[in-house]
Amino acid sequence: MPEKIRFLLVADSPGHTTGYYVVARALREAGVEVILGGHAQPEQIVETAIQEDADWIGYRIMDREPLVVVSRLMELMAEREQMHVRVVLGGIIPRSDIERLKQLGVEAVFRPGSSLDDIVAAITSK
After folding, report:
1. 27-51: b or e for each residue (b if 16 or more CB lie within 10 Å)?
2. Strand 6-11 versus strand 33-39 pairing type
3. pTM
4. pLDDT in tens, 88-125
5. Residue 26 and residue 32: Cα distance in Å, rounded?
6. Structural domains in the chain?
7. 25 by DSSP, 3-state: which?
8. C-alpha to C-alpha distance for 78 and 62, rounded to whole angstroms
């Protein structure tokens, strides 16, 4: 039996938590082991991903500039040799940023209104 997917779910700010918990629940119901990392900065996210042996990082961005925080996250992941950890984003992300975020290494971006089925499939089918 394959090992359970370990998914670290983090957020850029402590507010707007409904979607964060809805996604966590949907992933858990699909058999994914979800680690709730809460509100964290890129340095904390990478450290937690290492400590938790995460396969994925799900970063909910609502209040910060996506290109700034994701650039820093990916830089730190490279420094700590964690580029094998896959990254998906959710939240308020300008459509104009999506291609650049993917160039940085983000696998998928889920904006408001994305279906839970699509989110779960993106994590469980890879």
Report:
1. beebebebbebeebebeebbbbbee
2. parallel
3. 0.94
4. 999 999 999 999 999 999 999 999 999 999 999 999 99
5. 9
6. 6-124 (3.40.50.280)
7. helix
8. 24
